[in-house]
Amino acid sequence: MVQLMEKCTIGLDVAKIRADFPVLDQRINGYPLVYLDNAATTQKPWPVIDRIRDFYAHEYATVRRGVYSMSARATMAYDQVREQVAGFIHAASPHEIIFTKGTTEAINLVAYSYGRPFIGAGDEIIISAIEHHANIVPWQQLCQEKGAVLKVIPANEAGELLIDEYAKLLTDNTKLVAVNYVSNSLGTINPVKTIIDMAHERGIPVLIDGAQSAPHMAVDVQALDCDFYAFSGHKIYGPTGIGVLYAKMKHLEAMVPYQCGGDMIESVTFEHTTFAKPPHKFEAGTPPIAEVIGLGAAIDYLEKLGLNNIQAYENDLLAYGTEQLQQIEGLQIIGTAKHKASVISFVFPDIHPHDVGTILDQQGIAVRAGHHCTQPVMERFHIPATTRASFSFYNTHDEIDRLVEGLRHVIAVFR
Ligand SMILES: *Cc1c(COP(=O)(O)O)cnc(C)c1O
What we know:
Number of domains: 2
CATH superfamily of the largest domain: Type I PLP-dependent aspartate aminotransferase-like (Major domain)
Largest sheet: 7 strands, mixed
Shape: globular
Strand content: 15-25%
CATH class of the largest domain: Alpha Beta
Bound molecules: pyridoxal-5'-phosphate
CATH architecture of the largest domain: 3-Layer(aba) Sandwich
Low-confidence stretches: 1-9
C-alpha cells in the first residue's frame, strides 16, 4: 500500500494540489469532507476562482463590440481562451471551437444545426446502450420529428460496447454515430477510434460526447478524426455555464445557425440577414464572458499538472478503490470493463443506493446515488440505481479507506 502510494504520486504532489481547492478543507457532519462525486461535477481550484474574481474586479467589459480599451482587452482575453481550448484538444483551428453552455447544449446544437438539415425520413442515427440522457434524448426527438430511426449499440455484462454488433448496425442509411468516450455511470472507456474509423469507411460523421474524457485524459480530436466533440467546463474544474463544441470546419460551414440574434450576423436588413462565419455564426448574444475566462484558467491548471500524470494517478486510485471495494461483502461493482476511467458504480442486494448515499453523507462522504442520467444503463443491468464513487486527482488513498470504512458502517446499520 505504501509502495503503491509512492509509485502513483510520481508527477503529482497531491497534498499541494489539495491546498489549491479550498472547498475540500471543511468538515461535513463532523467529519473531514471526502468528495467523491467528481463525475457529476468537479471542485474549483484557487487559480480558477481568482481569475474570475480578478476579471470581474478589474477587467470586465463586453466582448466584440466596444471600441474602448477595456472591451478590446476583454475581447483579447476571451479570444485567447478559444485558442487555448483548440490547443487543449488539438483542433486544427480556434474557429472550430464553439462556446456553449455545456455538453448538453453542444449536443443539442448538433442535433438542431446538423441534424435538422441533413437527417430525414428513413435515415438512421446510431448511439450506444451506455449513453447519458444528453446523448439520447436530442437524437430520439430528432428521429421522431423527422421519421428517422434510432439504433443502439448493445453492451455486454461488463459494460463494454459490442463492436461486432455495431458493425451490423452501420448501413447506407446511417447518417450519424454519436457515442460517449467514457461512460459517466460505468466508467467504461469506449474504443472511439475504432468506432470512428468504421463509420468513416462509409463516410458517416461521428460525434463524441467527451464530458467524461476531457477531465481524465489527453484528447487529440485530429488524431481521433471525430467530426464533433463536446465537453463541459464544470467537469474539468472550470465554471458552470460554459462548455465546448468542437466541429470540423466543413460541417460548421454547412450547418444552420442554432440561435439567431446579435453577434452571429454579418449584416441585417428587414428583408435579409447574412450570417457571420464560424464560430460566431453559432454564438448568438452576449457570451458567458467570465465563464470563458474561468475555463481558460481551468485548462491552464490541468495542463500544468499534465493530463498524462492525472490519468496515471487516477488509474491508481481506480485500481486501489476497485480492489478495496471488492472485499466488501455483498458489494457488486456495476461496470467492470477492461478499460475504465476512475468511476466505480456499485450496488448491494439488500440496501438501496439512496440509503447508502445518505449514511455515507452522515460520515462526510459525498457520493452520487441514482441513475446518473443513464436510465437505459440501469435497465440494461436490471437495477433501479447505483451508488457511484468517482475519483479526481485531488482524492487520496486515505479517502478510499474512509469510503470503505463508511460502507462497513452502512452494512452494520442495515444488517
Ligand atoms: C455530465 C455529462 C453530460 C452532460 O453534461 P452537462 O454539463 O450537464 O451539459 C453528458 N454526457 C456525459 C457522459 C456526462 O457525464
